[in-house]
Write a structure and sequence with these properties.
The structure holds two protein chains of two kinds. Chain A has helices spanning about 10-30, 35-55, 85-90, 105-110, and strands spanning about 5-10, 55-65, 70-80, 115-120, 125-135. By secondary structure, chain A is an alpha+beta fold. Chain A has one domain: Histidine kinase-like ATPase, C-terminal domain (Heat Shock Protein 90). The longest helix of chain A is centred in the N-terminal third of the chain and has 22 residues, at about 35-55. The mean pLDDT of chain A is about 90. Chain B has a single domain, classed as Transcription Regulator spoIIAA (2-Layer Sandwich), CATH 3.30.750.24. Chain B has four helices and five strands. In chain B, helix 1 packs parallel to helix 2. The termini of chain B are far apart. The mean pLDDT of chain B is about 90. The chains are: A alpha+beta, B alpha/beta.
Chain lengths: ~140, ~130
């Protein structure tokens, strides 16, 4: 992919940085300010999850075109402990960290596509996309 | 980035100026709860007009502020949630249940003033009348 923006996540300022960059990428790709907010909120949730569970990782932002659609792709990657029960982690209100348990399911609701792969002891990757029709 | 907290009469007004990290939000919570005691505040307004995103941590912190201030005897009202922010919050499943909100600072002040009047009512002895005799 040509224009990839790789953002390391290792401190809470990085979470703010990642969601601001996400908003900018979405704005440049022509998303409405409502969608920019939605994308920024989803990034905020998954970036914080990296920090909370894996301590460090990265967010990769890119723009893709698919026929008459254009999309923002957000990939969140870490080499943390992984998720033991993915189905539960995607349930509202389930948290192993004392949080609200709305991060992953909330981000999933905000985006059009959401995919989570995880292996215990190896890490977690979340890939999520938001689309808009061109023209 | 520290959030300035103004004291106006019996109220504290925290006016968020820019994006906040989780640490900034926690710091705001500590500062407000401490100041409710120091200034004997009866009301707290948190103005979030400048926030372009409210995620689960921000919402939890605002809820904590409201509940802690309540335990310290002050009412809290959150003002200035932007329409797009409200939309994303609902999608995320985030609510401010049990926390007062108002459109803007002006409405927030009106709300606190109203609460204050209600509280004077509460102080009346049973029978609903202040015994001045």
């Amino acid at each position: 992919m040509a224009d990839e923006l790789r953002l390391p996540i290792a401190a809470d300022v990085d979470v703010v940085q990642a969601r601001q960059q996400g908003r900018e990428v979405a704005a440049n790709a022509g998303f409405t300010s409502g969608d920019q907010t939605v994308i920024a909120a989803a990034i905020s949730e998954i970036a914080r999850n990296i920090l909370m569970y894996a301590k460090r990782g990265e967010i990769v932002l890119s723009v893709v075109a698919n026929g008459d659609r254009q999309g923002v792709v957000v990939i969140a990657r870490d080499q943390g402990p992984g998720i033991r029960d993915i189905a539960r982690a995607l349930q509202d209100g389930y948290s192993t960290s004392g949080g609200l348990g709305l991060g992953l399911p909330g981000a999933k609701r905000l985006m059009d596509e959401f995919e989570l792969t995880s292996a215990v002891g190896q890490g977690t990757t979340v890939t999520m996309k938001k689309w808009r029709r061109l023209g | 980035m520290e959030v300035p907290i103004l004291k106006q009469g019996h109220y504290l007004i925290a006016s968020i100026q820019s994006a906040l990290t989780d640490a900034d939000l926690s710091q705001l919570r500590e500062a407000l709860i401490e100041r409710v005691g120091r200034f004997r505040a009866r009301g707290v307004i948190v103005d979030v007009t400048a926030l372009d995103v409210m995620d689960s941590f921000a919402v939890r912190t605002l809820r904590d502020i409201a509940h802690m201030a309540r335990l310290r005897g002050a009412d809290t009202v959150i003002v200035g949630i932007q329409p797009e922010v409200a939309f994303a919050m609902v999608q995320l499943g985030l609510t401010l249940k049990g926390v007062a909100t108002a459109l803007d600072l002006e409405e927030g002040l009106a709300f606190l003033n109203q609460q204050g009047e209600g509280r004077l009512e509460d102080r009346r002895p049973p029978g609903g009348r202040i015994d001045r005799g």
